Amino acid sequence: MSGRWVRILAGVVATLVAIIIGLSASGTLDATPDPETGLPAGAHRIDSIASQFTTRTIVLIPIAIAINIVLGQTVGTALKIPLYLDSIGTILVGVLAGPIAGAVTGLLANLIWTFVLAGTPFGSPFAWPYAIVAAEIGLLAGIFGYYGFFRNRPNTPTPQLVVGTVISVVVLGALALWGILPAYTEGVTFFGDLASVDPIFQLVAIAIAIVLVLALVALVVQLLVRRNLGVAYVVVGGAICGVISALISAPITEIFFGGVTGSGSDLLVAAFQQAGSTLSNAVLQQGLIQDPIDKTLTYIVVFALLHTLSRRFTARFPQGERAVGVEEG
Asked: Is the four-CA dihedral 157, 160, 163, 167 of positive or negative sign?
């Protein structure tokens, strides 16, 4: 079996595993009749999935889609660092509402991005094939939310805090050394030439840079000042999501676009090819560098955002209490 088909198989397996785990977290379908109602027990599982789509969730989804598209289009147009930042809304919905709601948000966002906004400054012909990846991102966010990855864990005992800090530093340090620094040696800069970029994208790009800096500062404060072990959970969750996303998206990038998507990732693909990698290997290498960095930063931003919201507000979402907790601290 060729290397290309091995990578495609890895992407399919990663997708199936994410779907199975997501459905398990939402409730599996069971055909065994319920002794009281006589209906299949699976009907209750379907109800649990439907319960993710409350009025608040339905209101949040279009807002989340708009956030994804505006940030994603800005990064693709104005920023030259190899990031996406087009999943913040999807992850937010997944964490607060559940895996299926998160998957639907990601799927719809990418389809709208290409087919509804075509011909506008916010349209992208590259988004639609990655709809399955966006769905996987929302699915995993819902799973991690279900298991409390985004909860605050302040005042953690010193031994546990030290272990969590070491894990966070190792993961973030590895991502920086393996992904960010090599990108800068290839001539990548945080801002490209903004002279030819629409002013609205310039403003959003600056806002993105500010939010990223504030999120990283908040991360340090939470970890060192508040002794919040939740930081380690978020960092690990983001890295896992990034690796799975890379395995799924790499075959899509190669098959649909020949490794060229018009984003900052093209620089990394070209660099790996110049170093002797085949197109298939270059695309996978780019994904395994870029996606974990992007998803880890996105998880950090969502974590910081969630804990600026009141617990009363987040608890009103289907998975809010379980994902974030009832009260701060």
From this structure: negative
What are the residue ranges spanned by the domains of the chain?
3-324
Amino acid found at 252: I
Question: pLDDT tens, 57-78?
Answer: 999 999 999 999 998 888 876 6
Residue among 60, 100, 114 at smallest CA distance from 302: 60
Structure tokens belonging to residue 120: 């506008």
Question: Within 10 A of 56 (CB to CB), how many other CB atoms are there?
Answer: 15
What's the rounded mean pLDDT across residues 161-168?
Answer: 89
Amino acid identity of residue 149, one-letter, is F
Closest CA to 99 of 56, 141, 46, 57: 141
79 pairs with which residues across the strands?
Answer: 191
- Give how far the C-alpha of residue 195 lies from the chain's centroid of Cα atoms, to the nearest Å: 30
How far is the C-alpha of 58 from the C-alpha of 22, rounded, in Å?
20
Q: Which two tokens stand for residue 252?
A: 């899509």
Query: Which residue blocks in 119-198 are alpha helix, DSSP H?
Result: 131-146, 158-175, 181-185
Q: Which of 11, 65, 6, 34 is nearest to 245 (CA)?
A: 11
Arithmetic mean of pLDDT over the chain:
80
Determine whether 216 is exposed, middle or buried from the number of CB atoms within 10 Å of its CB (0-12, 13-18, 19+).
middle
Q: What is the pTM of this model?
A: 0.82
Residue 83: pLDDT band with limits 50, 70, 90:
confident
Overall average pLDDT of the 274-299 stretch: 84
The SS3 assignment for 104 reads helix
pLDDT band at 35 (very low <50, low <70, confident <90, very high): low
Other C-beta atoms within 10 Å of 198: how many?
13
